[in-house]
Design goal:
The structure holds two protein chains of two kinds. By secondary structure, chain A is mainly beta. Chain A has no helices and eleven strands. Chain A has strands at about 5, 10-15, 20-25, 30-40, 45-50, 55-60, 60-65, 70-75, 85-90, 100, 105-110. In chain A, strand 4 and strand 5 (about 45-50) form a beta hairpin. Chain B has no helices and eleven strands. In chain B, the strands form two sheets. In chain B, strands 2, 4, 5, 6, 9, 10 and 11 form a seven-stranded mixed beta sheet that branches. Helix content of chain B is about 0%, strand content about 45%. Chain B is mainly beta. The chains are: A mainly beta, B mainly beta. The interface of A and B includes residues 90, 99 and 102 of A.
Chain lengths: ~110, ~110
């Protein structure tokens, strides 16, 4: 089983819809979880992180963590074409290194 | 503003040559990382450092080396470049302390080995 798994997509949503991006991880000792956005040809940009079970909201973005199910998700409300990018899930196991998933491509159509 | 920079942004080299990619950060972060990103593999950790004179191997360290002589810089050296090392290389940094360890990335270096 891969350490961090994401559906590669593309996930296609219409403008204004909610985009739901999912990530599962294999190590129950994982402590903090990150979502990065990466535009084509650019570097990953941190959107938000979460380390407690439940929801964490930041503007149009909500991260959800369920440690019992080893599942973390990112919801993007009112999706915009500018949200079209690859979204990387990353997991920290208590040290400073992160393990990344391969990313999910999101396409938001006008 | 604090930032993290990489140079060169693009590099073409020949098989067998030694290549050094530079990474410089002004965040005053103790932790620095090098990744490579390839289609189908995502981001993979090459080497990392927790501070001056500290270096550690990551998932794909063969053929690469790093040294940390100050807080700001972590150069990545390809001892003898191979075509398999054609990739996009990202440097990142993070604070030493804290439970979250969020990393901030540089703009990347696209390396082509011919």
């Amino acid at each position: 089983q891969k350490e961090v798994e994401q559906n590669s997509g593309p996930l296609s949503v219409p403008e204004g819809a909610i985009a739901s991006l999912n990530c599962t991880y294999s190590d129950r000792g994982s402590q903090s979880f990150f979502w990065y956005r990466q535009y084509s040809g650019k570097s990953p940009e941190l959107i938000m992180f979460i380390y407690s079970n439940g929801d964490k909201e930041d503007g149009r973005f909500t991260a959800q963590l369920n440690k019992a199910s080893q599942y973390v998700s990112l919801l993007i409300r009112d999706s915009q074409p500018s949200d079209s990018a690859t979204y990387l899930c990353a997991v920290n196991k208590g040290y400073s290194t992160l393990t990344f998933g391969k990313g999910t491509m999101l396409l938001v159509s006008p | 503003d604090a930032e993290i920079t990489q140079s060169p942004r693009h590099k073409i080299t020949e098989t067998g040559r030694q290549v050094t990619l530079a990474c410089h950060q002004t965040w005053n972060h103790n932790n620095m990382f090098w990744y490579r990103q390839d289609l189908g593999h995502g981001l993979r950790l090459i080497h990392y450092s927790y501070g001056v004179h500290d270096t550690n191997k990551g998932e794909v360290s063969d053929g690469y080396s790093v040294s940390r002589s100050n807080t700001e810089d972590l150069p990545l050296t390809l001892e003898s470049a191979a075509s398999s090392q054609t990739s996009v290389y990202f440097c990142a940094s993070s604070e030493r302390e804290g439970a979250t360890y969020e990393q901030y990335f540089g703009p990347g270096t696209r390396l082509t080995v011919t």
